[in-house]
Amino acid sequence: MLRNTAITIPTLVRIKRGALDRIGIYIGRLHLQNIVLLFNNELDKTLIERVDTSLKENNISVLQHIPIHASSSEHAQQIFQSLPRHTSAIVAFGGGKALDVAKYVAFLGRLPYIASPTSLSNDGFCSPQSSLEFQGKRRSLPAAMPYGVVVDTDVCLNAPLILWHSGIGDLVSKITAVYDWKLSFKKTGSQIDDFAALLSDATVFQLMAKPDHDSEGIRLLATALMLNGIAMEICGSSRPASGSEHLISHALDLISKRPRLHGLQVGVATYIISQLQGQGTERITNLFEATGFWKTIEADPFDRAEWIEACRTAPSIKPDYYTILSEQKNQDTFARIIEQDPRLKKIFR
Ligand SMILES: [Zn+2]
Known about the structure:
about 350 residues; binds zinc ion; 8 strands; alpha/beta; globular; two-stranded antiparallel sheet; Dehydroquinate synthase-like, alpha domain; six-stranded parallel beta sheet; Rossmann fold; 14 helices
């Protein structure tokens, strides 16, 4: 298998304090004069006003302001069909909903897409897929990689702490995902892209060196999550960012009475899977302790029975995707760890 030859990676990357008030300058430099702006409907109005002010000051015309309430592909289709003819770019501002819809609209319209996330709860702000509901079910659809990524670290720092913990959980999963990828190569001969694996692995270490909830910590997390998305684009597969720990989270999304944030589910699953793999557990534990990740989960524990069911159904979610959970005996060990690990006592009920 040859590497994806049509790799798209962001040209504009600004991850810094005050980036929000300069978004008009950045977009103006790219000569994208007529934009359509998508934003989360529940977003703080003052933030949207700051974006508008910056765009206006730099003579960028906002042809449409579109509040996004639901991340459905039907909604994205409607927006695509009503795009003004002379739209030169799609700009998304806010959380996952607005970004996922915008990414898909840009893909349908073959338009440049600028992502400006206001929180960092997962690696979706710069990945080649959109997580959207299609006929009532959540699906991963091909989408446009952003042409630009603008992250105001102060804005993300003000987002609820639980979203930061979710981003940390999604990031550490690369430790187990890359292991599963290599395991799949050994067991089934599926190809590994060494560079994508290396990039994915390296991002986690950057954050582990300084896991602080401050401007610099946010910058490191945003950079790491962005590079994960790029690793997926490089190899044309979700393998460098997603292994058995993600299958557990997908299974929970289907069976759980109340699915939680993606990165919270993925993070705890990563801790358990790392024990099955016999690698990385100490580093993951240290990071979760340093960041207060465990405390966030303890405040609203997971359902033990749902997780045990999830580890049984996880392999059937992607039958051709070999991971450590493909072997039944490892599913048994997973269930045993949930029951017996002292650190997980307060994490499940
Ligand atoms: Zn993820």
